[in-house]
Design goal:
CATH topology of the largest domain: Aminoglycoside 3'-phosphotransferase, Chain: A, domain 2
Order of helices and strands: HEEEHEHEHHHEEEEHHHH
Oligomer: single chain
Shape: globular
CATH superfamily of the largest domain: Aminoglycoside phosphotransferase (APH), C-terminal lobe
CATH class of the largest domain: Alpha Beta
CATH architecture of the largest domain: Alpha-Beta Complex
Largest sheet: 5 strands, antiparallel
Number of domains: 2
Strand order of the largest sheet: 1-2-3-5-4
Structural class: alpha+beta
Strand content: 5-15%
Number of strands: 9
Helix content: 25-40%
Length: about 350
């Protein structure tokens, strides 16, 4: 048997093996210079899950853990995956009452790691991205989590973008129109097949655009899979790359699509809410209306829009996996992913044609 058989100390494990997306020597040198709490050498480990920007757990010699975010490997759509913008957003939100990981350092020089990246604090906890992942939440913690998910969203939507330094993040009015334009372009750039339902939904959405009641900071992907939770409370909201200024009801519509009451059909994946113990979806919507004073009668439109938008997003993910841009670390079922796109488009079309 070759080698000494000595098991390396924990801080040495994984130090020599290649980690796709990380230039170990250059990233280590940059972090040692620019992240005060970072103690090299580091162990880098890709965190599974997520289909867009890549996230890595970074463990230093002292055992302290950080997180690193970078764009996906290979070609990506030009308007996506701006990690510098994402870093700016979580930096601005720190201390506002919206729980986010501490923003620690941004590297804008692609010469260091082939693309910009940023480092933030590592937040431990459960990510209840589906029914199975959330099954460990005790019944007493489920109602608390459901109420906290709405409360945090209400706090986010109450923020004045100018006061937190995000007033120039983008236009505030015409949010729905901009979303329809953006995701129409993304759909055309990414689609792997023709889906007439997507075109029909887009036409109906464009014909029925509601009046925007107010403007605020919109997360753009607010769902249980982007929450890190512990003991029924949200420790951090993550994945801010789709954040913009605009219509807060878009976030509520997206959350409503992820809030699948027990016995209701799934849209594209299971939901932690399905196991029971959470406030019913109509109670969730009423709680948001009470906390924000928002008229939520037009919510069905936003649910249809978000289902259509998610279909466009997932088609982009499907395209990247098909063409090898995203590594298949999670064992993605491509036929199932393609079917999810079709199911979401069908839900949106049925909602709109049914007058929902």
């Amino acid at each position: 048997m070759s080698g000494t058989g000595r098991r390396p100390p924990p801080h040495e494990e994984g130090l020599s093996g290649a980690v796709p997306g990380i230039d170990r020597d250059r990233v280590t040198a940059w972090m040692a210079r620019n992240v005060e709490s970072a103690v090299p050498p580091f162990r880098f480990e890709r965190i599974p899950g997520g289909n867009s920007n890549l996230t890595y757990r970074v463990r230093g010699r002292d055992g302290a853990e950080l997180a690193l975010r970078r764009p996906p490997l290979g070609h990506a759509l030009a308007t996506a995956h701006d990690v510098a913008r994402e870093f700016r957003i979580i930096s601005a939100l720190g201390g506002t009452g919206v729980p986010v990981p501490p923003a620690l350092g941004l590297c804008s020089d692609p010469a260091v790691n082939g693309a910009p990246f940023y480092v933030m604090g590592f937040v431990a906890g459960l990510v209840p991205h589906d029914r199975a992942a959330g099954s460990s939440i005790p019944p007493a913690g489920r109602r608390l989590l459901g109420e906290d998910a709405v409360s945090v969203l209400a706090v986010l939507h109450s923020l004045d973008p100018d006061r937190i330094g995000l007033g120039d993040l983008g236009r505030r009015e015409g949010y729905v129109q901009r979303q329809l334009r953006t995701w129409s372009r993304q759909w055309e750039a990414s689609k792997q097949r023709d889906l007439p339902a997507m075109d029909r939904v887009r036409a109906l959405l464009e014909d029925r655009i509601p009046v925007q009641q107010r403007a605020g900071v919109v997360h753009g992907d607010y769902r249980f899979g982007n929450l890190i939770v512990k003991d029924g409370k949200i420790e951090a909201v993550v994945d801010w790359e789709l954040c913009a200024l605009g219509d807060p009801l878009a976030d509520l519509g997206y959350l409503a699509n992820d809030w699948i009451d027990p016995g209701r059909p799934e849209l594209w994946r299971s939901s932690v809410v399905q196991d029971g113990g959470f406030p019913p979806s109509d109670e969730m919507v009423a709680r948001y209306a009470d906390l924000t004073g928002t008229d939520v009668s037009g919510l069905p439109y936003y649910r249809a829009m978000q289902a259509w938008r998610l279909a466009a997003i997932l088609e982009g993910v499907y395209a990247r996996y098909r063409h090898g841009v995203m590594d298949n670390i999670s064992g993605v079922d491509l036929p199932s992913l393609a079917g999810s796109v079709e199911q979401l488009a069908g839900f949106a079309l049925e909602s709109l044609e049914g007058g929902a």
